[in-house]
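Changelog-adjacent note: as of this version, every example in the card shows the full chain rather than a window. The one below runs 414 residues end to end.
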Amino acid sequence: MTQAASGPHDPYHALRFAEYRRYLLGTCAMAIASLIQSVVMGWQVYEITHSALSLGLVGLAEALPCLGLTLVGGYAADRMDRRSLALLSLSVLLAGAVLLFLMNRNGPPTVAWPFYAIQAMAGVGRAFNRPATQALRTELVPREAFANAATWNSSVFQTAMVLGPAAGGLLYGFGGAPSAYGVEVALLLLGGVAIFTLSPHPRLTPVQGGISKSLKEGIAFVFSQQVLMGAMSLDLFAVLFGGAPALLPMFAADLLRVGPQGLGLLRAAPAVGSILISLTLAHRKPMASAGRTLLVSVALFGLCWIAFAFSTNLILSLFLLAISGALDSVSVVLRQTLLQIRTPAALMGRVSAVSSFFITSSNEIGAFESGVAARLLGLIPSVVFGGLMTLGVVAMTTWKAPELRKLKYLHPVE
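Full-length structure tokens:
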């Protein structure tokens, strides 16, 4: 895919493959389930503890096992059948959802530690599920459709980001925790069925050597690619400091006073903006000045969170979160496209694992960082500090990664 590529742009290229459509259904169902769990668990933990630090500990509980095992998960994704690995790791997530349902069936727990334990269990499952499902996507469409597939994957995921938090808040607010976790279990089962029906195209190059050598190959490849490394690092530190979704229960309960239903809206708002921008990206030709667009988007993302910290109006808060989601979606689409078109097929699982490592660090460790910062600085100052740190990260990346800054069109590197 180059600037001079011939023929009209087909915004539905990847969707014309039935295997990929089923893949999207499965991953969308799993994403909605995960987000239902995240919203309901966050609200329950805050109800029990009334502590910002406890919200951070939810993220840390998932991050520690996930970070410890993600690279192993990437090695497994390059060595095993990716569909089988995705299903096996999904069973771990399903077990955690079932435990949450049973734990709340006779009333909500009065202590927080069971939630941390189940979230740690989810971290183990996601350490293997993320690299397997991300790499599996490249076996369902031809290479020339990778960029379009990444855009649609982002669109569907952001749709889940709307439906999941909204469903979690509404189900918990009107039906209680058992209803919410029961729906989560059903969605995970649906996702498993969809993945089970896939027939991926076999890979041609098997992994050679032991686990240590294989992991080093994947890590070395990422560090040798300034564009990939710059994009991943930008996402890591920007989301680590700049976004504070883990603190939204505090905004909903203490500042905006909108209850669990309002929390669902706040968690869903970024995805509304993401869906709109993702659909726009899918229907347009590859953007020029991709690197500059990525850097500007992340800088504006940080500014949105700074403004959100001072908002006391629900409508304004939702608007700012939607804008931040649209900007974040640009970053996600560009990063996913870069990863898929610049990574050899034989390394896809391990490189996806490195990407997952960065994502896990930014999201889950970022949740812990947000909780600690809010405990030390206060809620509003901690979010402002994070936004300012994001601006600093953009400036540093602009300076240290000139290849990313100068990147124009996204095209495969053979």
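Structural remarks: The domain at 14-200+210-405 is CATH 1.20.1250.20 (Growth Hormone; Chain: A;).
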